[in-house]
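Lab notebook, bench 4. The sequencing result for the construct came back, and we need a structural model before the next group meeting so we can plan mutations. Quick request posted to the team channel:

Model the 3D structure of this chain.
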Amino acid sequence: MELSPLWLLSSKGDSLAVSVNLDNPLDHLDWDARLLSEGQGSIFHSAAWARVLVETYSFRPFYLTTDVCGSRLVVPIMEVSSWLTGRRGVSLPFTDECQLRIPPKGIPQLLDEALSLGRKQKWKYLEFRGCPGLRETTAGAQPSTAFYSHALKVLSNSGQLFSSFESPVRRAIRRGEKSGIRIDISRDSEALRDFYRLHCITRKKHGVPPQPFRFFLNIGKYILSQNLGMIVSAKYKRDTIAAAVFFRFGSEAVYKFGASDPRFQDLRPNNLVIWKAIQHCAQNGISTLNFGRTNLLNEGLRRFKLGWGAEERTIEYHKFDFHEQSFVRSRDTLSGWQNKFFRVLPRFASKWSGALFYRHIA
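Done. Here's the predicted structure in token form:
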């Protein structure tokens, strides 16, 4: 489906009109290969991630695309249709950051196309999770909320990289190495099940229901099996005591999920998992490791990520409310009554809650 022309600046500084199309990445076998060759997207712009979201939650893809000077610009949007929370567009659900990588001059016009789509689909709101330049180019585009993002430049020299960490991080890594923990890196179903067990434990500790297991099965099917990710596990004696899921796309890796057994926290398995993952990235052509988003109120997690020498910046989310016809703010709280509730809820009930409600709260 072709939408109205979009005006952008060419590399020569001249204005040019290009066609904006409504697309579905699942209809293109070469979607990910083209993104990689052009360097225009992250794992979250990929068809692999789209398949995970569609097959797990039945979200509907509405990706705006246009070709400029031989490169494709992509604005990925998923329609979340829920009897409980209404219908809306999100770019993208369960994604910390999905930057709209378009020239600033093209933002207002492409935003108009996205809003026209939202009105046609009768969305309650449209949310962008990372759009540098939106506030500067669009009147009234106040951010709905914001987060920290931390990215580590991965050096090929392991010793130099280790030396760049703050001393508490280095001590924790050495403690993990001396404790007898061994690290496994794999993509198999056994590692995925071990991770999910720890995921449920960790989510309960934080007072949040776990994602349904089918979500991780689809991650295994469409991301891990395609060599677009890995599970790094810390094993102590016979038990897996910590694990993390990492994604990769081109030269960038993302720390997506982490989990651990709090009984073994003193052994510092999480630090060792991250360190071995960083070393693996360095050996496999990864130049950047993104640690994901951090709530602005979570100073402890922020300090932990900065301790690895990661560079900090701010991610802004923007939410356009179609009833108000304006950008609106969202409440940003670190915890609430619901966290206390899920901490005491039996694990089976918490799993059931996650399987039932996550598609509604994306």
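DSSP finds twelve helices and 16 strands in the chain.
Will bring this to the meeting.
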